[in-house]
Amino acid sequence: MASGDSDVSNGLSVPKATKLLIAGGFGVGKTTLVGAISEIKPLRTEETLTEASIGIDNLDGVAKKTTTTVAMDFGRITISSHLVLYLFGTPGQDRFLFVWDELSTGAIGAVVLADTRRLDDSFPSIDYFEQRGMPFVVGVNCFDGARRYQPDEVRIALDLEPDVPVILCDARDRESVKSVLIESLRHAQRRAQRQRTPSPA
Questions:
Q1: Which of 46, 48, 124, 135 is least enclosed, having the fewest CB within 10 Å?
Q2: How far is the C-alpha of 68 from the C-alpha of 176, rounded, in Å?
Q3: How many CB atoms neighbour CB 25 within 10 A?
Q4: What is the predicted pLDDT for the residue at 26?
């Protein structure tokens, strides 16, 4: 899906149509993020949580959650006249990781959405992208009532590489989400430029 003519937008050299994954743990706000930014009605594949998920889905910190994504969320946002971004939200539970390989095909990068009350839930997403060499940023979704941490504190807690951006955000707020997405594109571009630059002899 990363196709189309390459162009420059806000200092970014990116394809016209670009695919980005939105990942993270169960109940971290991926569906909310896609819905907040998408200029089209988002495609959602949510199902109601049932008793069958008891003991499988960890509802700590999200006890009021009644649905879960079982395949993907999909949205689209026009960043500029040169750049259209397609967003694919991944399922949050480990048992749906087999879906990620299909969703990640053609993606230039990812946003790992994190909840500081349940940071451990971020590790499967981080491990997935690190193992595949896909550039990602961490968006810390600042839930109401949750303790606030500085980006560097989150970076240490998640044992991230120094070049991985960590951004505080509100998944409900369109402008906040847009900032995360733009930083993700910039990070992917920086990574691609480093890979193209030959090492000194």
A1: 48
A2: 23
A3: 25
A4: 85
